[in-house]
Give the backbone structure.
Amino acid sequence: MRANFSVLIRTKRSLFISLLLPMILLFSWNNKHILKTFGGNMFVLAIVTTIGVMSLSIFGYALNVARDRENGVFQRLRVTPAPTWTIMISRILVQEISNLIIAAIVLIIGTRLYHVSIGAEQYILVLLISLLGGAVFLSVAQAIVALIKSADAVNAVARLVFIALLLLGLLGLSGTLGNTIRTIARWSPFGAIVQVIGGVSHIGPWTINSLWALIACLGYIVIFSLVGIKYFQWESR
Amino acid sequence: MRHTGKEPSGVVLEVKGLRVAYDNKIAVDNVTFDIRKSEVFGLLGPNGAGKTSTLSAIEGLVIPKQGKLTLNGVDIGQNTLQAKANIGVQLQSTSFQAELTIKEIIRLYAGLYNVNLSDKDIIESLELIGLQAEANKRFKQLSGGQQQRLSLYIANIHSPLLLLLDEPTAGLDPQSRRQLWNRIDNQRNIGGSILLTTHSMEEAQAVCDRVAIIDRGKIITIGTPLELIKRHRNDPNVRKVARGKVTLEDVFIGLTGSQIRD
């Protein structure tokens, strides 16, 4: 795990994007019109937290796994007596801890910037949900590296998936593209997580929709993980 | 499964009727050989002959369709983790995380093989392989020769019973290659057994006690380099390609054909 942490910290680009993008959004969306469009301060915080977690999970995990696979790092690890599952689990744990750190940074800065007051239990719940969000996007990333072998292709597809989820989330949830797209966006991986974060941070009461959003998140994790495990190959050749 | 010396025959690795297939393509077919204590065994073959697949089966990276692999009398298939703990591997590509420093890589692999190394031990080891000045450099900053030296050191970090080297000198300059041959000799002299694959007949003759020529998944011939030359020097295919005195390379090309393989 320590080695994986060192690698993640030294892969500055994905860390930089994962922290920079939420920060830019936090500061640039700090006006009444945008906050109103997305449904309030806390909802914007939920969106920005989700973007940070999504960025780190998709870019940090998928690109590192694809590159290490192409360079034979996995094969080198697999010939050691370490059980194979520990190779992936240690990476996933490192990613989740990083997701937690990103979410905490966004939340601390965001609540001060937007003058949002939430209790300690809400902080903890939002951070826990960011772990759930991390798991959803890590499973998406795992499915990408399972279905695509070449690191270059993974790089391109991961960017496309990220942009598609981001645009669907932002434009869809804002209602710019109409109600149908809004509904699709709400049940996309991005929208489902935003809904759950919204639910636990007491934007409104915990509704049946929040529960369905939580179930949708778990469903995404199961489906993408199954694809990601079934089709994953340790070698890119 | 440490160096017990209990095996009466001195056989460290036994490969019997090994068959490896990927989907419907048979990569290794009924391969049988053994490696003895303090022996350097070379597996020679053109591209796609089945060398790496044979090694992969021994390393536990692929599950054989058929056959038995035993390391010091213990079934590799049934005790994979135990076998892995007693095998040292240098893969074809030197494959460590590019962002990690040399010290971090050593610490990581020492941990994976359950070897306790202090900072002092690491520095002393790096001195032995001439990488002390590179201790805090990242892997990607090393030259090809330095990467190979580190890779061989890591393969040996747990003093394995058997060392598997997959084309260890590919892409190395003559100096680095000679250095590696010396390290292989040293390993044999201290009782180590080595299985290496190579395209270089010069290398096979310089370091291998016995070699097997493999083609299209099957072993064609096996013996010491001199035995193979003696055995096949009158083979018409070998005579056809020989340019003067028959060499191991002539035997190799004569038996596997002159066609270029991808």
